[in-house]
Amino acid sequence: MRKDPNEIKVFVTRDIPATGIDLMKNEGFDVRVWPNERPMTPYELIDAGKNVNSMLTLLTDSIDKNFLNQCSHLDIISQFAAGYDNIDVAEATRLVIPIGYAPGAMSDATADVAFGLMIAVSRKMFYLHNSIAKGEWTYFKPKANLGIELKNKTLGVFGLGRIGLEMAIRCKGAYNMKVIYYNRRPNTEAEKILNARLVSFEELLGESDVLSVHSSLNRENTGIFNKNAFARMKSGCIFINTARGGIHNEQDLLDALNAGIIWGAGLDVTNPEPMNANNPLLSMANVAVLPHIGSATVEARNEMSRLAAINIVEFYKHNHIPNIVNPGALTTGKQR
């Protein structure tokens, strides 16, 4: 895809870290950035897309069938995220629009959040912190506010990819936790360095003391952690989700916690997002909720910006996308 860089117009749908924006500008691209803090409406997104050659998008953008058909001229869409469930990839492929993304940039940052949530839930940290603000810290009570220890417990990972592996490494190193996992295919690296064991979904539910979700969201796993799944977990299990809120059924999770079916939950993702301020999960002793901050470090966001931008730069310079979701759209070679 050879074009004069000065003729290439790129629209960035939010004000992301300057790393990627500067990279594209230094290559001569005409880069335009959505000036507002709020996400774009579908109408605004389409209007912007009609006037540029390519777009750098976020998970909050609805890149659906309607958008893609109205902006079918786009050369490339590159995502400022490791996930892309906001994009109709099948339709983009049909229209020969390659989709880039930014995997790996937030593996450490997100694993840190999952690890932190696990510890916070095991010791009821968020709830007890709030109790101090309410003036409820009075005198020592030998049987009050008891948590559970994590040493030598079993970590179950649902989706042992980059982030899941980093979570498992932390759990193994800090607490000598045994690692089991459920994947579409074996993770030989994890099996080699952690002695991790591939198990069925039923075994994952029944054997995990901590069950941490790290998979992408797809049709197969939407709502998979529901009433039936929680019922098959250990009563002392901690459920962690730092992947996508749609993977668990939030009402079923609340019911399982209220009934004591599982010990607790740590969530960096909810369904819907943002979570309602009156959600009862926020006031439970054995629950810790964060506002989807898994990738929220300076290092991770800078790298996400760079990776999303380099996809666009490499596409125009060498007809190559380092991180591509739908390679078929690139090799088809549609004339534009």
Protein described:
It is a single chain. α1 (18-26) packs parallel to α12 (298-318) and α5 packs across α7 (162-175). The strands form 2 sheets. This protein has a 7-stranded parallel β-sheet with strand order 8-7-6-9-10-11-12, sandwiched between helices. The chain folds into 2 domains: 5-105 and 297-331, NAD(P)-binding Rossmann-like Domain (Rossmann fold), CATH 3.40.50.720; 107-289, Rossmann fold (3-Layer(aba) Sandwich). The mean pLDDT is 96. 43% of the residues are buried. It is built from 13 helices and 12 strands. It is of the alpha/beta class.
Q: Write out the strand line-up for the largest beta sheet, numbering strands in chain order.
A: 8-7-6-9-10-11-12
Instruction: Report the strand count.
Output: 12
| CATH homologous group name of the largest domain | NAD(P)-binding Rossmann-like Domain
Mean pLDDT: 96
Assign the structural class, choosing from mainly alpha, mainly beta, alpha/beta, alpha+beta, or little secondary structure. Answer: alpha/beta
Low-confidence stretches: none
Oligomer classification: single chain
How are helices and strands ordered from N to C?
EHEHEHEHEHHEHEHEHEHEHEEHH
Could you describe the largest sheet, including whether it forms a barrel? Answer: 7 strands, parallel
Radius of gyration: 22 Å
Helix content: 25-40%
- CATH structural fold name of the largest domain: Rossmann fold
CATH class of the largest domain: Alpha Beta
Shape summary: elongated
